[in-house]
Amino acid sequence: MTGDGNNLQVQRLNLRLLIPDSNDSQQLCPILGYAQELLLPLVDACTPLIHIIHNILIYVSVALERTPNNPSDGLTRDESAAICLYTIEWNNGERSFYSILNETLNRADRKNLRPWFKYLKLFLTAMAKIPCEPQCTVWRGVKKKY
User: Fold this and answer.
1) pLDDT number for residue 56
2) Is residue 101 part of a domain?
3) Quick one: which of 72, 118, 119, 139 has the most CB atoms within 10 Å?
């Protein structure tokens, strides 16, 4: 390990490609209920997460600041910022938004997802608007216990 932090940076980048302790055989129930949520601005959609994610409203502000008023992707500003929020890698030692959400999505107890419903409605509405890319191969790593 080098003392300049390069190894740490590589490890942080690789976290996006690795899902720790994945259990491929686990069958999860569908996520029911989020689709009935109203489509809200990002700040309002993330308000239920205040007690789950430390400083969430600060990160929401960062995502909104990084998003133009009229995004060129055809999404609303809040939709585009919801995707931005999901992709931001936090460098302050806290777990990033995507890491916490993905862990919650992979839990069998779907009740844990209830505070996320408003955000999921906004995020998945945005994702559904993005045009599909041509078919290609995408690789990812999954840690597995043997």
Assistant:
1) 96
2) yes
3) 119
